Amino acid sequence: MAAAAANSMLQHSSSCSLRNSQLCLAESRKAQRLACHHQSRNNIVAKPIKWGSNFPLLRTRDLAPKKEEIRGLAVRCAAEGIERRMVIGAAAAAAAAAAGETKVVVPERLKVVALVACVMCLCNADRVVMSVAIVPLADKYGWSSSFLGIVQSSFLWGYIFSSVIGGALVDKYGGKRVLAWGVALWSLATLLTPWAANHSTAALLAARAFFGLAEGVALPSMSILTSRWFPTHERASAVGISMAGFHLGNVVGLVLTPLMLSSTGISSPFILFSSVGLLWLSTWMHKVTSDPRDSPFVSKSELRLIQAGKTESPAGNGGKLPSLRFLLSKLPTWAIIFANITNNWGYFVLLSWMPVYFKTVFNVNLKQAAWFSAVPWGTMAVSGYIAGAASDRLVNAGYSLTLVRKIMQSIGFMGPGISLLCLNYANSPAAAAMLITAALSLSSFSQAGFLLNMHDIAPQYAGFLHGISNSAGTLAAIISTIGTGYFVQWLGSFQAFLTVTACLYFISTIFWNLCATGERVF
Question: Where is the chain membrane-spanning (predicted)?
Answer without folding.
Answer: 112-135, 147-171, 178-197, 203-226, 334-354, 374-395, 432-452, 464-488, 494-515
